[in-house]
Write a structure and sequence with these properties.
With 493 residues, this protein is mostly helical. It has one domain (2-492). Helix content is 81%, strand content 0%. It has 23 helices and no strands. It has helices at 2-26, 29-32, 41-62, 65-75, 79-103, 105-112, 118-143, 147-172, 185-195, 197-201, 203-207, 215-250, 256-273, 277-296, 303-326, 329-332, 348-364, 366-370, 374-399, 401-426, 433-452, 458-480, 482-492. α3 (41-62) packs antiparallel against α12 (215-250) and α19 runs antiparallel to α20. The longest helix has 36 residues, at 215-250.
């Protein structure tokens, strides 16, 4: 249990930056979607589309080298050289990318359908180059067990972004006369400035960096990283391509009216997607701590027991989060103060379930990294990406953004099942499927009860929801007895 406590402690610290930090960033949603202060559905759709493209390119630029760095670090006698080589590759990719973006900025803006946004394209090129490069230096902090410094840097960048959003939008955005200010450009400018906070705070680490090119090491890293990069790119297709396809498949003949209609649906879907992102934030914080932790446990005699226990606790926590959010949508919906967006609330429970499946997939995907069979991660992700594209093309024209939500759940469920089957064949870990199934089924049953019981009163409905959540918590306490295990671990130390 001591190793579980260590993982929980590091997850909590990383959570300060990834959960608390992005939760603070998440609180910008009420500002961005406010009826009088923020932007309308179409504008929010444009913002979401830009960030969907960002998600694609950040995966390409980091090229799976964060995980590669962790893997090679455990095998290397020269840890500085290992880091310098990984960082050198990412810096080279980022530099070439930024040059190409600057050269072809107008063509990119025209292709996106926003010919007046050339400067924004360049800004995002700079944001991506800086974020990709600093990601390796932040990975080094994780490898050196410096979660506090990691959290401070991430929080500072996020804090700068929030403050700049508030200053620029509240101080300079005039919704009544949009032609007199930058509009959504204020959000992009705030992001650009905030991105440079990270390299400033990483000055010590960056100044110690030495650009190198060890052909043998670079080749070995790239071979290991390539399947991860492919898997990452395919994975980001699963996560974000729906926002791009909703616009492309719903814009009809491309007229101004049809384009605005499509942008509005992207905006509605993206805003409500934010309500499901709380589970995603926990998953991200967990992954920051879990990846190096899982590699470190590889040689432990109790590794299978540890992996299984971690999975069980993880599933219980995300199921609890699902119940808290899905059963209290009447409260959570006010994070989006503009009621024009509320028609999309029906996607939230579906996307929450999808993120549970994604979290389980990420948790169990450690098998192909430990077994040095990263190609299977690529196969699963590619299969998921193809399924994502196929289902989105089939469902969005019929169901609109609801088709995108059901596609997300279907794909993540399929990836979770495929990973488990392959993992049991090539690197078997005996997970407690009975408990995992019990928590998932119980949360679905409790949600169904709360969903179909409506007393017409927010107060009464909230009380009922709280009772259902407490029932799930009681089940967890009875099954796991965490307090008893905690006391036992403390007495053994």
């Amino acid at each position: 249990m001591s190793v579980i406590k260590k993982l929980a402690g590091q997850t909590a610290i990383y959570g300060v930056s990834s959960i608390l930090g992005r939760l603070l960033n998440y609180l910008l949603v009420p500002l961005h979607t406010h009826k009088t202060l923020g932007f309308d559905k179409a504008d929010y759709g444009v913002i979401s589309e830009f960030y969907a493209y960002v998600a694609f390119f950040i995966v390409l630029l980091t090229f799976g080298l964060e995980t590669t760095f962790f893997r090679f670090l455990n095998k290397s006698d020269d840890k500085e050289k290992t880091f310098n080589q990984a960082a050198s590759i990412v810096m080279t990719l980022s530099g070439l990318f930024l040059i190409l973006v600057v050269i072809f900025a107008q063509s990119i803006a025209d292709w996106m359908g926003y010919p007046d946004f050339k400067n924004y394209v360049i800004w995002f090129g700079a944001i991506l180059a800086v974020d990709a490069t600093t990601s390796l230096f932040l990975a080094k902090l994780r490898a050196e067990d410096k979660p506090k410094k990691f959290a401070l840097i991430q929080l500072s960048s996020i804090g700068a972004n929030i403050i700049l959003n508030l200053i620029l939008i509240l101080g300079f955005w005039d919704k009544q006369h949009p032609e007199l200010s930058m509009g959504i450009g204020f959000i992009f400018l705030a992001n650009l400035i905030a991105s440079f906070v990270k390299p400033l705070m990483l000055y010590k680490e960056i100044s110690a960096f030495k650009f190198i090119l060890d052909r043998a090491l670079a080749k070995a890293m790239l071979i290991f990283a390539l399947p991860l990069a492919i898997a990452g790119f395919a994975g980001i297709v699963n996560e974000t391509v729906d926002r791009i396809l909703i616009k492309r498949l719903m814009m009809g003949d491309g007229s101004a009216e049809e384009l605005k209609f499509a942008q509005e649906h992207v905006g509605i879907y993206s805003a409500n997607y934010k309500l499901s992102i709380l589970i995603t934030l926990f998953i991200q914080a967990f992954r920051y701590a879990a990846e190096p932790f899982f590699f470190a446990q590889e040689k432990s005699e109790d590794k299978d027991k540890v992996y299984s226990k971690v999975m069980t606790y993880f599933i219980a926590i995300v199921c609890l989060m699902f119940l808290v959010i899905a059963l209290n949508l009447d409260l959570f919906k006010w994070f989006i103060p503009n009621t024009d967006f509320h028609e999309g609330l029906k996607v939230v429970p579906i996307l929450l379930l999808a993120n549970i499946c994604l979290g389980i997939y990420y948790n169990q995907s450690i098998w192909y990294k430990l077994a040095d069979k990263t190609k299977f991660g690529a196969y699963i992700a590619i299969g998921g990406a193809l399924l994502t594209l196929g289902l989105n093309f089939a469902l969005i024209p019929i169901m609109g953004y609801m088709g995108a939500a059901w596609t997300t759940l279907s794909v993540y469920f399929a990836m979770m099942v495929a990973s488990h089957i392959l993992g049991q064949k090539y690197y078997p870990i005996k997970y407690n499927l009975r408990k995992a199934g019990l928590y998932i089924v119980s949360s679905l049953v409790l949600f169904s009860i709360g969903y179909f019981i409506d007393f017409g009163s927010i107060l009464v409905n909230t009380i009922i929801s709280s009772i259902l959540i407490l029932i799930f918590l009681g089940l967890f306490m009875m099954m796991e007895r965490p307090l008893k295990l905690l006391k036992k671990s403390q007495s053994s130390e």
